[in-house]
Amino acid sequence: MDKETLKAEINRLKKEKNAIILAHYYTLPEVQEIADFVGDSLALARKAAQTDADIILFAGVHFMAETAKILNPTKKVLVPDMSAGCVLADCCQASKLAAFKAEHPDYKVLSYVNCSAAVKALSDLIVTSGNALKLVEHFPADEKIIFAPDRNLGDYINRMTGRNMMLWDGACSIHDHYELEALKALKEAHPGVPSVAHPECRHELLEQVDFVGSTAAMLSHISESDSKEFIVVTESGILYELQKRNPDKTFYTLYNAALEHDCVNMKKNNLENIYAALQNENPELLMDEELRQKALLPIQRMLELS
Ligand code: 13P
Questions:
Q1: Engineered SS bond to 43: which of 37, 39, 228, 285, CB 3.0-4.6 Å?
Q2: CA 39–ligand 1 middle distance (angstroms)
């Protein structure tokens, strides 16, 4: 089937089965085009909590679909490619976090949403890059906190809020690999052009940019700015929405195909496997009910507080 036929078939199946497609901004343009809702992690979690569809097809990575299932136990959550994982989430194994917690019984666990359901179940509160600075304030200033799994986001929160959270040694394979020298070269090539970055980048890069924020925060910041050019330090999937909202603006990214600075997992979602998943109602994400209930509590706390 060609792309247009696939899109028409996907739309037909969505209607027929009362299905909704949620997609992250990092997915392929054609996936974002057929999604009912495109967002960052926080917006997608909120949307998953609100939908009255019978089927949620999640075009993102595994932990995002898990979050949708945790919030919607009676709904069918479909994942076009079960192998679309998250390198950052994989940095924190639940058994290791459980052992670490046992060694630090007086610590609370604050986890970034990019983690498995099993890690969420061990956490007191979940945050996304969009609400982390606000939600950490939910804990008293002297609270001892373990932050998992992203050391760069944790370091950013510590610096911005004066906290001293203990940081799990995990990182995103995309954002952690952007090089300071490459950013400096891009800035030199485009003098005076403002820059934005995702807080999963290393501190040395975040220091060099004008604005740090989640995917949605960067999109708003750029869209509201008068500047006609921007240097964008995050996954290149964001360019689709950026260009859509700002057709008159030019963007320069650190994306380098040769270095694979792009999230291959997000790009595993495509029209073919979305069509097949909707048609067959498979692969379906299933979850142990006890685990789901434990993982739900810190997500619910996040949604109430943010
Ligand atoms: P956002 O919270 O900005 O959507 O980030 C998601 C993510 O996985 C970044 O790597």
A1: 39
A2: 9
